[in-house]
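Hello Y.,

Per our agreement to keep a running log of every chain we model this quarter, I'm adding this entry. I've kept the format consistent with earlier entries: sequence first, then predicted structure.
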Amino acid sequence: MSTYFSFNAEHFNNNGDQGNIAVLKFFLGRQGITFDEVDEITEAAFVLVGDASRAALREYAVPMMEMASGLEVRHAAGLPTLLIGSSYEFYASRVSWLETPKLGESVSEFRTTETNEAGQVFGYRNSRVMDFDFDRKGDFIATTFFGPILAKNPVVLDQILIACGGQAAVWPEEMKSCVDQVKRLHI
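Predicted structure for the entry above:
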């Protein structure tokens, strides 16, 4: 059994970010591992804080800041975590354990970035962050890329599956070809 925590999934899912949970559930389930939701960040093998509207960020700013110390522990230990889009930007501007990004004009585009840990990582971004798209410490990932980035990036997915107690994914051929086609359309 493995566990996950997703912060206010109904409001922090602007671009299908909860799809990261779905893809982990799917592949862990194929390996006979249940992936159950827990209520506390400290009990979770995996944590997701998805992208949200400015209104949701304002509404949940206090509970998000209350969660910051738990995220800092996860960051220091490199535990499997995804901070996505506006949630990453929210924390990066308020905590000392994430580097404050350089901001510029908003850019909305598909793009690929090179990483040391996973090679090329592909995603869609709509952000003012200029100096990076994908920051990683162990299995703690902060990114400007939206949506189910694990489904679009099989190497990253495999790394997170292993960190959650599973094994690398064995993709049904039709799923793998769909992911490859999406990438080819936008690279």
